[in-house]
Amino acid sequence: MPMPPTVVLVTVPHATGQGLSVRTNDRAALRAADALVQALAAHRDIAVRLLVGDEARRACDLNRAERCDSPARFKQTYREALARRPALVVDMHSFPASHTWGARTAPAVALLYDADYRSLAERAARALAQRGVAVAVVPGAIDVNYIITEASEARVPNVLVELNESLVDVTTIIDALAAFVATEVGGSRYVWPPYFTTT
Ligand SMILES: [Zn+2]
User: Fold this and answer.
1) Residue 174 lies in a domain
2) How many folded domains does the chain comprise?
3) What residues does the ion ligand 1 have nearby, CB within 5 Å?
4) Alpha helical stretches, state H, 17-114
5) Which CATH number is 94's domain given?
6) CA of 147 to the centre of ligand 1 (A)
7) What is the pLDDT of residues 41-68, one digit of tens each?
8) pTM
9) Which of 7, 18, 66, 199 sits most deeply, having the most CB atoms within 10 A of its CB?
């Protein structure tokens, strides 16, 4: 009997926000998340679930992924997905190039982590750096982001990915990220519970 696929949960909480007084729109995050889903589709043993918080869109299926169309529903759906214990949560965001994360120049990618999963973020950073991606590793994703906080509380490995919005071509970054995710959740690093099977 074939093993059920390992589930990777990709979240894009800030996919929109036009008209709001605060910046909640991560302009590059959804495009990057879509590309990550496509890149991971090559791995038959991995099923990706994509949750998009976006009031402007209707809930719909994308490949083996799901979008949700309101913040409340997004949060509820996230909690339900987390309760089913995905192998990894990748929380996708993007930032304007004026934000340098404390460095002299803005990196292409910033990885934010909760202390419990610092080593995971550092492995991801090494994987990206090996492909020539300028990456910053930043502590403190917890307490400001319920996606990361709740994943850590549930002991589900997680990382928050911030992508520089000034990048034109993110192919290298997404390919490197997909390769890292596949390596991270593959093999015998974890024992996966049954989740769902695709037909
Ligand atoms: Zn964001």
Assistant:
1) yes
2) 1
3) 14, 26, 93
4) 29-40, 71-83
5) 3.40.630.40
6) 11
7) 888 889 999 998 865 443 333 334 555 5
8) 0.84
9) 7
